[in-house]
Design brief:
It is a single chain. The relative contact order is 0.17. The chain has a 7-stranded mixed beta sheet. It has helices at residues 3-11, 35-40, 58-66, 141-149, 163-167, and strands at residues 18-24, 30-32, 53-54, 68-70, 76-80, 83-89, 94-98, 104-106, 111-112, 114-119, 125-129, 133-136, 156-157. It is an alpha+beta fold.
């Protein structure tokens, strides 16, 4: 976490959390979800306009990456100064990019060691690692298939609906706020 973020947290300890304004899609892209996007539907809904605006500003994306982590209940957030901005997940908290040597890096560029491999009913491949659970990026399925064929990875079957419970993450922290 950035030092400036830690200093802001100490200076303003009681800033309310933010829900629904930031999303991570299944390709590792960040989306800013203004009021209009949130009114169009949930991030996971696939409804027109519900994803929001794709973030392209490299320094902002890097700042989010350095300050992205889960809380104790499995809700992933971006620590923006003193405020936690909870992230709506289209799929999983991490998106894996498979490297030519079959190593993996998450969508933030951090390398990790694969600890388990799962395949869901729709053919999506997930990796559990030292950093957490993530979906393999669709562009890297060829490299992932090589890892399976070479016996490096041995996928186990799992239903997509079981992922959050089994791996302890929350896809929509915002949904938990609506009571």
């Amino acid at each position: 976490m950035d030092d400036i973020v830690k200093q802001a947290m100490a200076k303003w300890p009681n800033v309310p959390n933010c829900y629904g304004w930031l999303g991570l899609d299944a390709r590792g892209n960040w989306y800013l979800r203004d009021d209009r996007a949130q009114a169009a539907g949930s991030f996971q809904s696939g409804l027109p306009g519900s994803k929001g605006s794709l973030l392209t500003h490299e320094k902002l994306i890097d700042f989010i990456a350095r300050n992205y982590l889960p809380d104790a209940s499995g809700q992933w957030f971006f620590q923006n100064g003193p405020q936690r901005v909870y992230v709506e997940l289209q799929a999983t908290p991490l998106i894996w990019r498979v490297q030519p040597d079959h190593g993996v890096k998450d969508h933030l560029g951090r390398a990790a060691e694969v600890r388990g491999v799962w395949l869901d009913e729709q053919g999506f491949l997930y990796l559990a690692s030292t950093a957490g659970l993530g979906l393999v990026h669709t562009q890297d399925m060829g490299l992932a298939a090589e890892a399976v064929e070479q016996g490096l990875w041995q996928p186990q079957a799992l239903l997509q609906s079981e992922l959050p419970g089994q791996f302890g993450f929350v896809k929509s922290p915002q949904a938990g706020q609506k009571k």
